[in-house]
Amino acid sequence: MYKRAIEPRIVSDLHHGKVIIIYGARQVGKTTLAKKILAEHGAGGLYFDCQVRTVHDFLVPDPDVVKARIGDARMVIFDEAQYVPDIGRTLKVFHDRYPEVQIIATGSSSFDLARKTAESMAGRTREYILYPLSVAEVIGTIGRAAFDERYEIFLRYGFYPGIIGAPEDKKTADLESLQANALYKDILALEGVRKPQVLVDLLKLLALRTGSEVSAHSLANHLNTSLVTISKYLDILEKMFIITRLRAFSRNPGKEIRKGYKVYFLDIGMRNSILQNHNPMDIRQDVGALFENYFIVERIKRLSNEGVAASHYFWRTTDQKEIDLIEDRDGALYGYECKWSDGSVALAARRFGELYPGSSIEVVTKASATGLLA
Predict the structure, then answer these.
(1) Are residues 88 and 176 in the same domain?
(2) For residue 48, what pLDDT is reported?
(3) Same domain, yes or no, for 83 and 199?
């Protein structure tokens, strides 16, 4: 079993008067983590799968009804809580009445669960995101040598726990199954998703344009649909933990672009599955975009897992000087330019340094990336 980086932080928050919410995509390990915490820190606690309809019968906004079902349990897990109607108000009234009971709720959709809990649970929660496994988590379990040996396998098939553990000849089929459930079944079930083919086409287009600047307007034009539809679907994909968007970094109007964004997939295996391309790196045409997606998302995952506050952007000047990732943390700017093979960003780095004295720029290659991620 992989040791998840956010586990110690969650454990430190137990029994401090807050409902703990763990967000994350389907099959990233939320249930496994919640049950592990329950087994090690919640003796006599209870676990409920909120996809089971009978659980809905007692999860109602009446604290005494809920209490009658859980009895003297001091810790309760409500897994995939977004499936319960009025879950926000239910958790609020129960927590206010019985604050000594530690509630841990999980959800595969921040779009759905956060919407249902945001107003009701204001000030009452500690929220965490559980991503697919990170480089640091994998190395912490299998070691650096084993990771290096399988480096390109990870770039082809990604970091979902179940996919990592599958034999290589099963990984593609398992990813296709995960894709069908996590992308199409779950997302298409959401209220407001009325154009399923547009969503499918949008995902493929985003996968093809990984690392390129896009806008909702250009995507809508390409897919011959409305700007409103594309904006809504992008928001859903982000809040379902399928994609993340990097916006342009700019503090010098007139010298830098300020609009547009780049889209990256939170798991590169999922991205490759959408494109039906798990080919070895030496015969791929998209190796640069794939490596860029890998490094940027793994960097985001590492800082999030460690609880480090940081904002991430890309940077480009009006005369086309560009840096893939700008990290704004601790009052300083750190830039990273991704190159699968050795390369140079001398001109872009010099220009960025002129505009932002004290910043640093680093070229990230296949050989050097792991040191920045683990």
Answers:
(1) no
(2) 97
(3) no
